[in-house]
Design a protein that fits this description.
The chain is of the alpha/beta class. It has eleven helices and nine strands. The strands form two sheets. It has a six-stranded parallel beta sheet, sandwiched between helices. Strands 5-6-7 form a three-stranded antiparallel beta sheet. Helix 5 links the parallel strand 3 and strand 4. The longest helix has 13 residues. The N and C termini lie far apart (about 40 Å).
Length: about 250
Amino acid sequence: MDRRSFVSMLVAGATSPVLRRAANAQAVPNVRNVVLVHRLFADGSCWSEVIARLQPKGVRVTAVQNPLTTLRAGVEATQDVLALQQGPTIVVAHSFGGMIVTEAGVDPKVSAVVYVAARTPDAGEDYTALASRFPAPPASAGIIWSGDDGRLSEEAFLRDFAGDLPADKARVLYAVQAPFKRALLADKTTHAAWRFKPSWYAVSTEDRTINPDLQRFMAKRMGAKTIEVKASHLSLISQPDAITALILDAAGQR
């Protein structure tokens, strides 16, 4: 039986009482492996501020390079990184990366899942329909298309995505944003790791990319240990100390 078949078999039993109770358990203490998953309009370097704070703590950090083509491709890229980890691992997601972590986080190596202003759909849930229950965030109108490739306009990137960063720094991030495929927005998860893994969530209170009240709803539904950070969507860059502390808490290192 290959690794992915084993993970699927494990998830088939996720609704058992034993696994449901695991969602309320504490993370394994002193976890030393952290895997970071980025969102749309970015690449793995967006985690640099957090990585620079985790490494001096003795944490082994790997940032997944999410291909931004399909959910499946993102999950497989994350599974490949998880396969390289030695021992229990915390998986951390920003924004759309939450879709990937919600799916890939069922891996038996994953001891906890951490979400930073992230999507956390349930298994099979239509995230777009869920989000429509809340006022649309301004960044949604800033996506520009070239065929099937989507990007965020410079104006929307600076104002609605990275609004609390210095403009010169935000423009550097804008210059390196990776395009994403249109089909990615319609993909759905088939598993929900947060239903049986300990979970943490950082709400960005000044977010103009994912409605903060939607973030609060998802965090509450998960029963996640939640903090609120006065930050734009890019709290991992503008407030890296707070995000690092949340990850260390999930790793049992605070």
